[in-house]
């Protein structure tokens, strides 16, 4: 077979290594930009290595370390709590839909899929969360809206359960007297670890990168801001100071572009650190959960 050919395998190995290096180049460019002098960036643009090394961007952010560190802890809390809630709700929704004996299963599946195509719009959604659920300026405002439930995750998990957990196993458990909750916790969930890890990773990325909830639902309690909101505020402040620097000459040299790169580096590090722990489940979970069924 062609896969046993030594030349073919060597060529494919080299090709994959090149792809890996190319995928790393944006991060190298990001790090290089954050460590380059602002004037050099304006004159020469981005390079894979700093033409003129400068720590001005990180020095500026270090002076703002108190709100940034607080926002980091808040983002971790939001991500951990929100991801856990997302996985639990997704599992509780997907498992019944995977059972062919569920009454009204097709109707429920239709409404689930319908929400992927249409929604009520921003204004009705905002009014429901603020006037009915009254979550403005609360921790729930950073966790519940838009992120706690995702129809695509439910469909992925439902398909995975239907494709990888035989009905005979569940029927045998029922004959032995197991309740549905026991079947879910002792059989379905342990056998669904790949798709659960996949959903957890995707939900964690969504929570970590989310900044819109803070803008929409937090107007007074800015201490609940996550790292994305704080970094966005820092960037807005830098832009404001530079645009009103006629009377403040010292702000003309304030880093702008390099700060953008430094902010991106600060925000992406936790996700890069978490991904290796989910990698062994991610490919299997997303492939089986989204293609089969």
Q: What would you say this structure looks like, in words?
A:
- The structure is a single chain.
- The chain contains 13 helices and no strands.
- The protein is mostly helical and 293 residues long.
- It folds into 2 domains: 54 residues, no CATH class; 236 residues, MetI-like fold (Orthogonal Bundle), CATH 1.10.3720.
- Helix 4 crosses helix 12 and helix 12 packs antiparallel against helix 13.
- It is globular, with a radius of gyration of 24 Å.
Brief descriptors of the model:
293 residues, mainly alpha, MetI-like fold, 2 domains, 13 helices, disordered C terminus
Compose a concise summary of this entry.
The chain has 293 residues and is an all-alpha fold. The chain has 13 helices and no strands. α10 packs antiparallel against α13 and α12 (227-243) packs antiparallel against α13 (257-291).
Produce the secondary structure layout.
Blueprint: H1 6-34, H2 38-44, H3 56-62, H4 65-98, H5 105-117, H6 122-132, H7 151-164, H8 167-175, H9 180-191, H10 193-209, H11 212-217, H12 227-243, H13 257-291
Distance between the termini: 30 Å
Largest sheet: none
| Mean pLDDT, all residues | 83
What is the beta-strand fraction? Answer: under 5%
Number of domains: 2
CATH superfamily of the largest domain: MetI-like
Query: What structural class should be given to the helix and strand makeup?
Result: mainly alpha
Identify the CATH architecture of the largest domain.
Answer: Orthogonal Bundle
Globally, the shape reads: globular
CATH fold-level name of the largest domain: MetI-like fold
Radius of gyration equals 24 Å
Low-confidence stretches: 247-252, 289-293
């Amino acid at each position: 077979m062609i896969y046993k050919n030594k030349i073919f395998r060597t060529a494919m190995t080299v090709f994959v290594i090149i792809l890996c290096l190319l995928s790393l180049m944006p991060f190298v460019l990001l790090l290089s930009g954050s460590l380059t002098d602002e004037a050099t960036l304006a004159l020469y643009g981005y390079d894979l290595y700093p033409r003129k090394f400068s720590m001005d961007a990180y020095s500026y952010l270090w002076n703002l370390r108190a709100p940034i560190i607080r926002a980091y802890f808040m983002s971790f809390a939001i991500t951990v709590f929100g991801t856990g809630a997302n996985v639990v709700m997704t599992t509780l929704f997907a498992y019944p839909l995977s059972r062919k004996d569920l009454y009204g299963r097709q109707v429920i599946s239709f409404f689930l899929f319908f929400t992927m195509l249409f929604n009520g719009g921003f204004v009705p959604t905002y009014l429901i969360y603020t006037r009915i659920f009254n979550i403005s300026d609360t921790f729930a405002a950073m966790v519940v809206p838009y992120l706690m439930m995702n129809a695509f995750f439910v469909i992925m998990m439902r398909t995975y359960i239907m494709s990888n957990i035989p009905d005979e196993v569940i029927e045998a458990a029922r004959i032995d007297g197991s309740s549905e909750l026991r079947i879910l916790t002792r059989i379905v969930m342990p056998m669904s670890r790949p798709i659960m890890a996949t959903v957890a990773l995707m939900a964690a990325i969504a929570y970590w990168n989310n900044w819109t909830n803070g803008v929409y639902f937090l107007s007074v309690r800015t201490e609940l801001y996550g790292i994305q909101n704080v970094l966005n505020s820092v960037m807005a402040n830098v832009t404001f100071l530079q645009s009103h620097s006629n009377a403040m000459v010292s702000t003309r040299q304030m880093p702008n572009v390099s700060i953008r790169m430094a902010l991106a580096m600060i925000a992406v590090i936790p996700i890069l650190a978490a991904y290796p722990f989910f990698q062994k489940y991610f490919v299997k979970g997303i492939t089986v959960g989204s293609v089969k069924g």
